[in-house]
Amino acid sequence: MDASETTGENLIGDFAYARHLDGRLIALEMMWSDQKQRIARLYVPRDISEMAQKGDFPPLGEDFNLESGLSYAVFLAMKVDLPLVLCGDRSVWDDRWGTLKLTTRTN
């Protein structure tokens, strides 16, 4: 058991983690930038992308810092009622934030 489990310090929650992208879900790919910063890229189904382009949403298709990307991904998943999964480089994730739980869910 680590400190976050006993004290709740810095704990956000558990997130589904997938090894591969699924175009039917809200997916946040985690990676390291060339400058060794935590960044993320958001992938959404085509109809959601079109909705975001027409609405007053931040642009998709560009990299975000991980914190902003995760916030946006949670917002979109809640807004369109689709599951959210994280994917990509697990070393980007700080375990104090919560647990990445491997999932095979595809819809």
Outline of the structure:
By secondary structure, this protein is α/β, with parallel strands linked by helices. The chain is built from three helices and six strands.
Annotate the secondary structure layout.
Layout: H1 3-7, E1 15-17, E2 26-32, E3 38-43, H2 46-54, E4 63-65, H3 66-80, E5 84-88, E6 100-102
Parallel strand pairs: 1-6, 2-5
Antiparallel strand pairs: 2-3, 3-4
Structure in words:
The relative contact order is 0.31. The protein is built from 3 helices and 6 strands; from the N terminus they run αβββαβαββ. Strand 2 and strand 3 form a beta hairpin. It has 107 residues and is an alpha/beta fold. The protein has one domain.
Give, in spatial order, the strands making up the sheet with the most strands.
Answer: 4-3-2-5
| Nearest-integer average pLDDT | 86
| Percent of residues in beta strands | 25-35%
Number of strands: 6
Subunit organisation of the chains:
single chain
Query: Major beta sheet, specifics?
Result: 4 strands, mixed
Total number of helices = 3
Helix content: 25-40%
Q: What number of domains?
A: 1
List SSEs in N-to-C order: HEEEHEHEE
Gyration radius over CA: 14 Å
Uncertain parts: none
Through-space gap between termini: 32 Å
Shape: globular
Summing up helix and strand content along with how strands pair, one would put the structural category as alpha/beta
